[in-house]
Amino acid sequence: MINVRVSTFLAIWVAALTLPGSAPASQQGGLVPEWDANRMIQKLSAEIQRVDPILGEIQVESWIAKGASAAYREQWQDTREEVRNVLDTLGRLAAQPDRVKIALEAFLRVQAVDGRLFSLADGIRRYQNPALAELLEGTFGESAGARQWLRQYLVDLVNAKEEEFLIIDREAQQCRAQTITQPLDRSRPAAEVKRP
Q1: How far apart are CA 121 and CA 106, in angstroms?
Q2: Residue 6 near residue 172, CB atoms below 8 Å
Q3: Distance between CA 172 and CA 1 in Å, rounded?
Q4: Contact 54, 139 (CB under 8 A)
Q5: What's this model's pTM, rounded to 2 decimal places?
Q6: CA distance 13 to 36
Q7: How far lies 153's CA from each of 36, 96, 109, 173, 194, in Å?
Q8: Nearest 10 degrees: CA dihedral of 141, 12, 152, 162?
Q9: What number of other Cβ atoms are within 10 A of residue 103's Cβ?
Q10: How large is the C-alpha radius of gyration of the chain?
């Protein structure tokens, strides 16, 4: 069971290290304290939250009337939904900053929003208002530092959890080895052995 968990964390760790700009925790000084992580998570959440009102200004139906693909409607709705999902996930991460699963989910959702926003900005620029497209890109761009922090935090968190599980696994192996090598005490009668 422990080996499965260690393998899972190793897989996530290897994947996280392949991200551009990633560096092992040992090169960055380790995992930040929980209060500092909460501060950065809340900062990222506030920066991404500023995107939602801009998305509300998009008039996708008028785009379609001008000849844009109806797929823009779904893209716009999906983007708004994904922004809400990012905010929800960041809220859960702020409450439990030591959870790798939530940190990974937050990172992947932020990446999804990144791709969708810039694609949607192209439609805004073409069918509505280039200034609104610039505002959307600029507002989301202001979160670049916090998004980079989240990526590094994920790498550091995976490294920290991997170290914890390796220690647990090593201690479990030592306990198992000690139990196996201990001689069986045959001096006690079988009646004294308590059964659960």
Answers
A1: 22
A2: no
A3: 11
A4: yes
A5: 0.70
A6: 22
A7: 11, 13, 15, 30, 49
A8: 160
A9: 29
A10: 25
What is the per-residue pLDDT across 135-185, written as a single tens digit (0 to 9) for each? 999 999 999 999 999 999 999 999 988 887 777 767 777 777 777 777 666
Q: What does the pLDDT read at residue 33? A: 87
What are the tokens at 177?
């080895």
Q: How far is 128 from 132, CA to CA, in rounded Å?
A: 8
Q: Are 104 and 62 in contact (CB under 8 A)?
A: no
DSSP for the chain reads -HHHHHHHHHHHHHHHHTSTT---HHHHTSPPPHHHHHHHHHHHHHHHHTHHHHHHT--HHHHHHTT--THHHHHHHHHHHHHHHHHHHHHHHHH-TT-HHHHHHHHHHHHHHHHHHHHHHHHHHHHT-HHHHHHHHHHHHTTHHHHHHHHHHHHHHHHHHHHHHHHHHHHHHHHHHHHHHSPP-TTS-GGGS---
- 73, 61 Cβ separation under 8 angstroms: yes
What six digits make up the tokens of 194?
């308590």
Query: In the chain, how long is the greatest CA-to-CA distance?
Result: 92
CA distance 88 to 76: 19
The answer to whether the Cα torsion of 85, 87, 92, 98 is positive or negative is positive
Q: What percentage of the chain carries pLDDT values higher than 90? A: 61
